[in-house]
Amino acid sequence: MADERQLIVGLGNPGPRYAGTRHNAGFFVVELLAERIGGRFKAHKGRVDVVEGRLEGVPAVLAKPKSYMNGSGGPVVAVSRFYKIAVEQITVVHDDLDLPFGTLRLKRGGGDGGHNGLRSMTSALGSKDYARVRLGIGRPPGRQDPADYVLREFTPGERKDLPLLVDRAADAVEVLLARGLEAAQNEFND
């Protein structure tokens, strides 16, 4: 695995309106990983910003699609084709409503759970066989619409704990690359 370039995709929505929202949890993680390798995101063809570098000695491309969440698949396919990265070498970092806030889970494959970014990626890639790092954001309170909830900013209490969650998720990506999915699951799955 260490010789094969990996693609780490953070899912989110572009622009200042969505910058601090729950749906941008994936962006937060790849931005931290970019800091760790000393890289800055640069525009790449195919509506995606990328950083190239090494994580735990593994060649990696960090990517943030510039499309909205429900159109993430096209930019991810474009960047994976450009770098000749197979679906099995793609890891997607995303928010997950079905996990309590602060929970972290890793897996490969599976359904989209109603997540429009995952639905778009699976459709565009023609496969579900990519790894996922899922950051729990919890369910909306009361009768709040989930679509509205994910586009809201974190509560003050959540914002206080968010850096730890993002840091743990970035660590999980590094362990996934260095030692594989099972080792990362054993260490980080809550």
How would you describe this structure in keywords?
single chain, seven-stranded mixed sheet, 36% helix
Task: Please specify the SSE layout and strand pairing.
Layout: E1 6-10, H1 25-36, E2 42-44, E3 48-55, E4 58-65, H2 73-82, E5 90-96, E6 104-108, H3 116-125, E7 131-136, H4 146-150, H5 156-179, H6 181-188
Parallel strand pairs: 1-4, 1-5, 5-7
Antiparallel strand pairs: 2-3, 3-4, 6-7
Helix pairs in contact: 1-5, 2-3, 5-6
Walk me through this protein's architecture:
- This protein has six helices and seven strands.
- It is of the alpha/beta class and 190 residues long.
- The chain has a seven-stranded mixed beta sheet with strand order 2-3-4-1-5-7-6.
- Helix 2 (73-82) packs across helix 3.
- The chain is globular, with a radius of gyration of 15 Å.
- The model has no long low-confidence stretch (mean pLDDT 93).
